[in-house]
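Operator note (shift B, R.M.): manual run for XRE family transcriptional regulator requested after the automated queue skipped it. Running by hand, logging everything below so the morning shift can see what happened. Input copied straight from the record, untouched. If output looks odd, do not overwrite the archive copy; leave it for review.
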Amino acid sequence: MPHATPHADAATAELDSALRGGPFHVALRAAIAARGLPLQRVRHHLSRHGVTVGVTSLSYWQQGARRPQRPESLRAVRALEEILQLPEESLIRLLAETGEDTSAQGPAARSHRVHLEASGVLDRLLAELDHPSSDVGVHTLGHHEHVRIGPRRELAGHESHLILRARRDGVDRFVAVHHGDPGCVPARMTVHALENCRTGRVRTHHDTGVLVTELLFDTCLRAGDTHLFRYGVEDGTAGVSREYVRGFGTAGGQYALQVRFDAAALPVRCHRFTRHSPAAPRGGRQELALSGQHRSVHLVEPRVRSGMLGIGWDWE
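Run finished. Output pasted below as returned.
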């Protein structure tokens, strides 16, 4: 008779503890880890139960970035209890205990990103562009991002260079998301298609500071094809910027982020950090040295994981 491995024992103990004390997202993450199921497989099992939930939504649920609230989502939670071999009502009970209150960290901790995820605004904007959040038509092989901080310490803009591989036939566009800082005016931002793409439809939402744009390719990719392109967003509409963060719904390829500061606005220190979700505390802090000549800092992640990765800085 095979014996449980120490890793399996630890995963089971973590799951038992999470099911007893919650919160919901920790219990869900522990259950998925204990069963060793990739989110794509979880999504497949849910579809066999007659419930449609995207991989991105599942990722947000287990990160605590979003809570299942709609009737269809609650049906999915009950199905997850069966799929993940959990006691009946165990996940539903945790949802009921933690309730709908997301303000436990206080108003100051509720950034534009937390508001965005909680409100479902991004899903609606993506739907307007016929691009549901569950669409995983491409795999990002590489993403190099260059952020500019202006003389007023504002987020002046950013430029992205992406390398994609199509997962299916028929991919002819990419939908990019830009999050402005608090106080920004998305309607005044400008999107520039710089190489191997052109700008399509643009959607903005003032309260959450988000801009969503189509970048159209001049070719229709087949499964396995790659595509390189560059685009930029001119912002400069908010006040003092203190961090730049990129969120990843699924694991991907290399990500490099460079932040360059204007000579009239140099920070006193910089650091990289990670977050499991928009509402989670920072982790993985590492100090970054500011380049004297080029006034920039950077990070390189060879293979990104789902979650958030960014650079923060202090002005005084």
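Quick read of the result: Confidence is low (pLDDT under 50) at residues 98-111. The longest helix spans residues 6-21.
Leaving this for review. - R.M.
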